[in-house]
Design brief:
four-stranded parallel beta sheet; Rossmann fold; six-stranded mixed beta sheet; binds magnesium ion; 3 domains; binds guanosine-5'-triphosphate; 10 strands
Amino acid sequence: MQPKSHEVKRASELAIVVGVQFGKIDDRTFSDSLGELKELVYSAEAKVVGTITQKRPMPDSRTFIGTGKVDELKSMKEATGANLIVFDDMLSAAQVRNLEKELEVKVIDRGNLILDIFAKRATTSEAKIQVELAQLQYLLPRLTNMWSHFSKQVGGIGTRGPGETQLEVDRRIIKTKIATLKERLEKVDRQRATQRKRRQDVYKIALVGYTNAGKSTLFNHLTKAGVWADNLLFCTLDAVTRFLPLNSKYRIVISDTVGFIQKIPHELVASFQSTLDEVRYADLLLHIVDISHPNAIEHYEKTNEVLDEIGAGQVPRLLILNKSDLISIEEIPSIDLNFPPAHTFSISAKTHAGMDNLLNFLTSFVEKDIGARIGIAKNPDGKARNSYR
Ligand SMILES: Nc1nc2c(ncn2[C@@H]2O[C@H](COP(=O)(O)OP(=O)(O)OP(=O)(O)O)[C@@H](O)[C@H]2O)c(=O)[nH]1
Ligand SMILES: [Mg+2]
């Protein structure tokens, strides 16, 4: 099956990206983060028309950047016709309000941008609930009077308490909505737990890694599933699970999952817990790294951090260095990846180089792992359970 094509509209918004290099942040980390922000803007279907950077020991409490830079930003906005300003770091409600007032244009931060991409990509009802919950939780502490239109949209008789300010009403409405969404998610969690029980005797593999590493491309090759894979950040939001046709007598499933990124809003990780169950309850993780990316090591480390954060730090894993077609062997970073050579594989999900080697290892690894598990879970009569078949 051919991967589904998704039409991606381009450049309905023109954006200026803004980065501030604080005290200890080195030049490379700073420029990499800003480069990634530009990719995020592109993935959100907007076009970057300008960049503003500043070195400061600390952010300005009022406008994040200094007054001179605000003027520079305003001139650039006028010259380029930009209708969106995106900051690479988290802004406070007051900073957004002050900047919007002075610049007369919409101002958002990296967190808003990631949430917006997620909102665009969410297709299943579960993903929609998760994204909306994360958006509202992100919004709540940043709520200012400018959001008063929100209550007008959803409010009405009974939404306004005596003596409450508009801001308090907005907060109350959002908190109620958050509670409703949480209830709906709990229901989804229960359904997932039931499904998981049914799948207890199936060996579960999950693909994990930084966004754009090639997880879906590999998943499509292994399962012929035809999920969306593209050179955009966060193509995949929902976990998709398929049987993995390995040359084995056991039943094995594999899941494609959402990618990770640095500076991800923690509200998002928190509300995607049920999707991330596929990772947490997996028997084996395949950690995919785009080894051709200049920040491959940082991506690898960030992914490990998020895996720890979601409680998947102890799940056994193999390391897959993908996109090997784009670099020569000598260019593969020599940094110790904390993996024994037997558990590290260099492949190309695109040209299929290294795939036989990976699949042969995977087949024997899974057989041995299941064998060990069945050995442990013997019936009282001493016979092995007929599981995983
Ligand atoms: N050259 C090359 N490109 C690859 C390879 N694997 C994937 N790609 C490309 O990398 C881009 C991202 O691939 P995806 O499979 O969508 O990556 P992903 O990890 O699923 O990304 P998200 O779902 O966005 O987190 C696509 O343009 C793929 O065609 C590879 O081995 N070699
Ligand atoms: Mg994907």
